[in-house]
Amino acid sequence: MGELDGKVALVTGGARGQGAAEARLFGEQGAVVVISDVLDEEGERTAGSLGCDYLHLDVTSEAEWEEVVSNIVERHGRLDILMNNAGIFQPAQIVNTSTEMWNRTVAINQTGVFLGMRTAIKAMIAAGNGGSIINTSSIAGLEGGFGATAYTATKWAVTGMTKTVAKEVGKHDIRVNSIHPGVIVTDMIADMVTGKEDRMAAKQPLRRLGTPDDIAEMALFLASDRSSYCTGQAFTVDGGVHG
Ligand code: NAD
Fold first, then answer.
1. Which of 97, 141, 148, 223 suits 3 as a labelling partner, its CA being 20 to 30 A distant?
2. pLDDT tens digits, 148-190
């Protein structure tokens, strides 16, 4: 028996990295999983290897959110888990942050999470089965993130939206929590990490960098009924760096 038997999950940005690891674990635990991304070829390939569906979804598009959530509800009758994972990271101190970079980061990391929650919550309330929404923030959503003004602003927004929306939708048995990854080795930070893994790991309390599977395990806990009395909370998975 799986922890997510009978549940239907949507994982945004699921073509690779943490999203792909979350999709794999959710599927292994019995969920019907749909992954979405803007990287269609990689997304189709990942979905093929996981045995799940792929749907194109640019998280900045209100129309695409409506289409994808309607499609899932038509096909599977419900949506129980929304894993808001998609995000971008373009490091820059404030003096080097162009307005274009700022707006793009806000559109994907912040507005994308807002649109996803709003669309999914309407479908969850209509279905009447409750639900679990997991928003991917960062340790940059808990402290200052030197050299990443736009990114840090959006991740704090995710932390705040999570706490607020959790209070609004608890009465529908919809839980909303955020995950705060530390340094997780994925394509997103390859430029910062490649060749420096050992040096970076030596500075971590647990003496290693994080993996997508480390995050997927926390996502599974939050998606499943094991966390049924947790909502509006920030869960840090960073090897002990923030604290
Ligand atoms: P990643 O770059 O491998 O994955 C991010 C995914 O989001 C990609 O597949 C990308 O195509 C997708 N994406 C980007 N823009 C999109 C859009 N407009 N619509 C839909 N999908 C879009 O990186 P990752 O490390 O797996 O990142 C996953 C999440 O974790 C992100 O929200 C990121 O900010 C967060 N995070 C990562 C780290 C880290 O160290 N890797 C640390 C803290 C938080």
1. 141
2. 999 999 999 999 999 999 999 999 999 999 999 999 999 999 9
- 56-113 tens-digit pLDDT: 999 999 999 999 999 999 999 999 999 999 999 999 999 999 999 999 999 999 999 9
- Looking at residue 1, its pLDDT comes to 87
Percent of the chain with pLDDT over 70: 100
Q: Tell me the HSE value of 80 on the side-chain side, using a 13 A CA sphere.
A: 19
Predicted model pTM? 0.99
Name, in order, each residue with C-beta under 8 angstroms of 159's C-beta and a sequence gap of 6 or more.
137, 141, 142, 178, 180, 234
54 flagged as catalytic: no
17 within ligand 1 shell (Cβ under 6 A):
yes
Rounded distance from Cα 192 to ligand 1 centre (Å):
15
Alpha helices, DSSP H only, in the chain? 17-28, 40-50, 62-76, 99-105, 112-127, 149-169, 190-193, 197-202, 212-223
Answer whether 117 contacts ligand 1 (Cβ < 6 A): no
Distance 12 CA to ligand 1 centre (A): 9
Task: State how far the Cα of 88 lies from the Cα of 134, in Å rounded to an integer.
Answer: 17
User: Do the beta carbons of residue 165 and residue 118 sit within 8 Å?
Assistant: no
Catalytic residue selected from 26, 54, 151, 156:
151
DSSP secondary structure string for all residues of 16-62: SHHHHHHHHHHHHTT-EEEEEES-HHHHHHHHHHHT-EEEE--TT-H
Q: Which two tokens stand for residue 204?
A: 């971590």
Task: Sketch out the chain's domains with CATH numbers.
Answer: 8-236 (3.40.50.720)
